[in-house]
Amino acid sequence: MSIEKGCRVAVETCMGVRNNEKVVIVSDDRTKNIGMGLRDIALEITPQVRYFNLNIYGKRPLNKLPSAVEKSAHDADVTFWTPHSLDGELETLRMPFLKAALNMGRHAHMVNINEEIIRNSMAADYGKISEFTDKLHNKIKNVNKVRVTNELGTDITATFEKYKWVQSTGICHTKGQWVNLPSGEMFKPPTTMEGKIVIDGSVGDYLGEEYRHSDLVETPVTMEITTKERPQATSVSCENKDLEREIIEYISRHTCSKYVGEVGFGTNIFLDKIIDNMLQDEKYPGIHIAFGDPIADDTFADWSCPEHIDMILTKCNIWFDDEKIMEEGRYLIG
Fold first, then answer.
1. pLDDT of 186-235, one tens digit each?
2. What's the pLDDT tens digit per position in 200-209?
3. What angle do CA 165, 89, 43 make, to 5 degrees?
4. pLDDT per residue as tens digits for the range 65-109
5. Does domain 4-122 have CATH number 3.40.1830.10?
6. How far apart are CA 8 and CA 81, in angstroms?
7. For the chain, what are the domain ranges?
8. What is the tens place of the pLDDT at every residue in 310-322?
9. What is the mean pLDDT of the chain?
10. In this model, does residue 1 exceed pLDDT 80?
């Protein structure tokens, strides 16, 4: 299967590009084919399309967003970001680009996308994903507490009195809105959280390049979480001491780096496996927990952070108050 269908769904269905709009697409050498695929589809609709490859601006990681890219994003109606993630570029590139992109338009965040994703989950039925996400949101919006367990020893309880649940359905047609593609998730920062999580799925940001799902299955990461001024990680342990050290270093960069910035539920019901790419894996049916930035522009959280790292747990049991909505990784709602 070619990448054309997934690129077409992204441009036409998810972002709803119109014939009078300015479109900006950013890729790098690793995602050039996808960037050009998005460009070709966009050009069928509007002649106002600009394409950038980050690698022409110098050795990565770049310490500043190129001015031509920033200016074009600032004036665009629709933007796409596909480059792979490198240490430090969340703060120097991705966050400044997002700010510029939302000045006048709407944004598709596709960091670390690859051809497997664009052919499969990006070509899914986003109408059905949106319908299921809405159904899950209706279940949780008035819930007082959520409990999560799994056979590896995860047992956490969280409350969500503050902030806003964000439904990421893949449909992004409103100015000032942005979406991760492929999509299918619902997330929010918790108000309180107590207990232990055992991560055996994926880890995000640049760590996902080195540590695979198979590594985490063999040596899961255990984290203790408690609520002080905010829910936060208080310990990290793993038999793989390199991974343990890197996670500790990541969540110790700033005071906010250890805060639980997101509890997310994957709602892309078309996914059936972890593929070692967080862009897709966080949409896999189940739960993910992120440390660092709470995406305050969307969740209305009253804090922010330069870091954001997702952690995926698998085969979980989840209760909304007393209603069990997931059993060993399988949703119990239709």
1. 999 999 999 999 999 999 999 988 999 999 999 999 999 999 999 999 99
2. 999 999 998 8
3. 80
4. 999 999 999 999 999 999 998 888 989 999 999 999 999 999 999
5. yes
6. 16
7. 4-122, 125-331
8. 999 999 999 999 9
9. 95
10. no
